[in-house]
Input
Amino acid sequence: MTSFLNILNNTLILHIRGHDCTLISRLCEITYADCCKEPALSKNYEVAFIRKLTWLTVLLYQKLENTRKSLLQNCPENGLQNTINQNHQLLKNVVEEISWNITLNTVGPVMQEHDRIKALALIYATLLEDGGGLMQNEELRESFTLVVLNSLDVIETCDDNDLLALVLSLIVRPYLEARRGSRGEVMQKLWQLMMKFYVLNRDFVIEEKNKLGFMIMCFMAEYMFEDGIFYQIGNGKVFWQIIQFGLIHTNSQSRKRSQYVLKRCVDHFTSNQPSEQHISEYLPWPEGKKKEVLKLWNTFFLMTEMLEEKQAHVLKPVLEKMSGLITSSCHRNGESVFHPSWLLVIFKRLFDHDNKNIKQRGLTMFLEEKWPAEVLSKEFLLFTTTHLLTALSDYSLYGRDSDQQSEVAASMGAKIAVYITNAASSLRSECTVFTSSLLEAIFYRKSWGGIPLFYLTRGLALAPSLAGWKYETVRQAVINFEHCLSTQEVVLRSASQCDLIRAILIHLSPDTSFLQLCDVIGRFRRKESWCRGTIIWDMIITSLGDCFGTWNQKLASLHNVITSSLSTTNFYSPNDIALGICLLMDSTINQLKDEERLEELLIPLNNFLRDCHIRPYLDVKKLSWILEVLTQVLEILYDAPRVWSRELTENDDLFACLTEGLDCVVQLFIQQVIKYREPHDIDTVLLHLNFYSKCYSVMPLKSVMFRHYPEILLVCKSLLSQEILIQVFYGILLLEQLLKNYQHYKNPLEQVRRELILLASQKIVNNIETLTQRRQVDGYESSEFTRKLLMEVARSCWSCVQLLVDKSTSWEESMEDGLAVEVRTHIGGVLIGAIPTASRLNVHHVFRVAVSLASSLIECCIWEGVVSAMWGACEDFRKSCDLHRFLVSCLTRLLYHPHALLAHHHHSFIIQMSQQMLVSAESVQGISTHMAHCLSTALVKIHSHGHLDPASLSGLVQEVLVPLVMFGNVYRKQYRVIRDTVMFIRACSKQYSTDMLVESDWDSETKTRAMVIRYLLSLSKTDKRQCAMARVVADGIRHHYARSGGDRRDYANSQNHRYKTRLLQALLILLPLLDQSDCEEVLRWLGHGIICEHQQPSVRYLQEWGAALVAILHPHLYTTLMQQFRQGTRERVGCVGSFLAAVTHVACCSTAPQLLCEAIQHTLPWCMAQHFNTRLYAQVSLRKMWQHCETKGVTEVLDKYHAVQECLQFVAEQGNAARNTTNMLNDFYFKVFHPIDHFTLQTILHDLPCLSMVASEEWISVGYLLGVATDDELPMASCIPLFNKDTTLATAPPAPWVVKAAGETRPCEEEDEDERQDEMNDVQRKITPWKVMVPEITLGLGLPQETKLQQKRSGLILVASLIDKAANLGGLCRTCEVFRVRQMVVDTLAVKDDHTFTALSLTAHHWLPMKEVKVDELGVYLRGLRAEGFTLVGAEQTANSTSLAHFQFPERSVVLLGNEREGIPCELLQLLDVCVEIPQSGVIRSLNVHVSGALFIWEYTRQHPHTTPHQNTPPST
Output
């Protein structure tokens, strides 16, 4: 910089006069050297100096050019012309250096890169600042153009917002301003960048490659409406699709920028009616409908702007305007004034909204609308398969509405089905394309939750029949569908498969072959969907009647495939062949004739099997394929649900043709198995054994197997005696097969039985540890086959042991006593070590062995160790739902074995283990159910044998049984939605195979409580020991009630509230079993609970009812109830209502005049109580008792209290009292409820919780209670009736005070349509600054555009240097930016980094010019402003201050705000031209400084509206 100053001072005049170019050359060198080689612009004065330096270069160039031109005209010389060319060359070199350096990639901090680009761009912008003078030279113009094009290349790989703003503001904009009328090349380059930034993917969805594209588009919007540029890019689809993509962008700034561009387009069309060739389908502009179109766009912009808000109450009124847009886009006359794709923009924004209610509202509107075909055929199909499906994947959308009944579909799920049905109906000829696309999209690379997937597949199944789905599409969809099922709840998984099968049967194309159908169906999980005997199987059979060819054609196709597979090496899938055979078997029309034809399918298989044992060149692969086919056929046919009405053996005769082939196969196996000595032979052995086990289900084949039974036994003995270990392993597998199927033997021989027992005990039991703990086969390297062999042998060993010790088989009875004891003792000692190492294949056998040996384990004192090991194994397998459920069942059977319960020294262990299991049960469903079932059934067995000692079981009851009564957490949203959906699926049992096939734990918590209640109902009043057991349970209930915060009121449906409700329900069930002394203790306990706290309705009802029941069942305890009443009135007046209700119920169950008179006497004083509710309860109670006396004809009471009745009648007729009394008398608790007549399980467990507004998962119906266990397991011995005699209580509405306590609201009456219309005429609308979408990053550089921006601001400067609090400064900053204040002055600019400041200012400090002036520099600063012509105004109350209402602000004004506490210092007051105060009429003497400043700013703006142009006003729409 110093060198430049020296040259400038010494040679400026000389060089100008001498026409020398040295100065310009030197200036260019200094400019480039200082700005490019040393790019760190750390201070503002350096930036300003660069700009001034460059500007001086331009001025000198212009001066020299003008001087030389005048000299050339007077005396032309070649030297002067060369000098001019040399000057051009010097500037051209500078521009070319800028062009080269701007594309140079440097390695360094980002800020240094910014500074380098800023310096280069600043030089470039200053060179063009003369209005395009330098652009007159063609060579310079090419160089300037090259800089622009190179800078755009930099943008292409740039993702920095500030860098892009620098290039656009300092390079591209000056160039375009200087090239008016010739902007096409640069604008096309910008559009090409946009095309690279936003591309269509394979699904025709826009993908964003660079996040800065919308800033470029905003910049283009300033120039693209000139020279026809807009019509070149706007007539295509891509431009509008990019805008729509931006409107739904996740970044709010991108959304605002896209909206800005769209508004500019609409604004352009508003001002200039386009020609027909320039009108895009995305922006239709019908002639004569300008006002209608503008109104629609105004509505559209209103909705997109308001969707930035989060509050539902602000958005819901705006959504009412959506119907107008929908109507305009769905014109049926062929002319649309609003393209439907803009609707999708709004719907996508609704789907992505943070507020769940708004999202749900948007989905409801979209799904319920019946879209016409001309709309659906456009972008709607793509929108459905992308954005709609994504929105529907949210499980929280599928919750049951509060006004919906249980066991119904979620409203959102029902709407999905409606939408698919309506769309398919509207599309008609194209509906196949729609549903096929939907099918592909659902299962293409999407991970679905169980609930959304269920409702989507259900929607496909309910759609009208299309018969257009192609096999390839369906097959791929089913393959992808399988990947979605692994982690889903089993009921949802099963129902989704059933629905998808239904949809396939309805929509599959008739061109599909029978074998292709088998391929598709076979890919579903058979035991969860299409198992034989289920509703889905019957649907498949029915669909075969008219589709996929005739029955004979299907048979022929199967026959051809079987023949082809046997004659070539290309084998068709055995699963598909087997399914086809089974379907044809069950779809026979002419029974005898068709069975003969079906045998033709099996005959080729039998022919191949026949003589296979003597065939020298047997094709082993074909043999394996045949065995797989037959195994699958037998499994499908004979593995049907037990509830199936048809006989499984009805197809037995069809397999008679296979007996000869089976006989040969068995002989072949007997010959070959002795030769198997390699691990890879395990697959062949397992294939044969699996096939043989299926053959035992078919009578003709079973006889063949029994005929070879002795031969197989001999081979087994031979293998077990071999020295080669692998042969021994295969012998063990054979022995398991023999033991399993011995019970089917027609003529069992005692000798064979003893041989099998001896083999099993010697070869397996005695070597169980060695056989099952092996990790390697001696002599063989570890491989897939060796691992499989070892796992199968371990499984087979434990299976054999299980068969030996399981009492359900006959093997244990056949063993000699000594051998049985030896087997049990040896196995018992092995169990503790075997359980932790058990694999998935054999762990269930190990657990069953442990249960079978329960008595021995207890006697040997190893029971606790085995149980602990089993619990550890359960935890290891908790992710395997079905296996875990079985293991927990075995564990609980062993834990709660009657012998263990009767052994007192085991109780502490049982309690400890139960508590661990209860903790785990809170996160793993099903554990608590097995605990409740096994404990309850074990206690019933102890009762039946008369071994019950209630006192000894008190610890178990208190720590295990009662916690099971109260078990169950508050459902999280997800589990509640799953529960509601599963209940709906169960209610639709005629549509799904779920009930017949799968076992689920979705209701495990409810089932747990129901199990224990069933146990309580099994206690008989006639058995004293069982009554004593009831007393122990009642003590445990009181204990846990106190631990649940018994005297404290809880939130509605909170955990403690539910605990109390469950415990009180159990106590009511026990009341008939308790004697008078026990009931008196219960009454005092209930009375204490009523006195202590006003509980939730369900708890309060049960307390009042329980107290009344005790007094009714034991009349002598009525006096105790009254004592509790009197005690309560002294301790808490709020309990009087509850005691009045209890006394009233007791009185209404009696006809004794003395008791009625006493009840009335105790009630009368409370009719004059101070509290309104107490008076109301007393009056209602008296009226209730009076009605009872009139009904029963208790004249003595009627005569005695006749005057009381007249007084009550008079009071009841007085205004509000009449209404309130009527409402209370209509309350079910006083109107229809009867404490004795309604003392049923239905009332206790279902109706009363329902009327108390307890969560629906707490309701237990009587039918459900009876279904959790059989009468043999848990007999019903209670005297409490099951059902109410009528439905009066079940149909009664809940009391208004209960609804209020539960936080519910009654449905409002429909508003008058005119009133609603009036309300929707005006809605909230937040201002969007749509005119300023490119950051003002050039502020402070002194560029012409900055001057223009400053000129748009007002003439007001706000000085806030005296303010200390960041919150006030942040609020003032926001106010200043909104009203375009020229500048805001603060004590330190560091406040912009303060979190408190930014929380109030939001982003205003990015857009508002701010200046730092320290407090001690304010005097100098204010004097300087006055010298520039500003009027200094102080916001302060002084002796000479002027009212703000009367003060006229000059256009150039400065407002000085004082400190929050001290105001404006006295020394500064002397500098001000005027002090202005805000007129007040209140007591407080001053306003907050932020509020005061805002009032001053607004008053200035009001007086000078022309100086603050409304930049945020939307287009003329």
About this structure: The chain has 73 helices and nine strands. Residues 468 and 1474 are 85 Å apart (CA to CA).
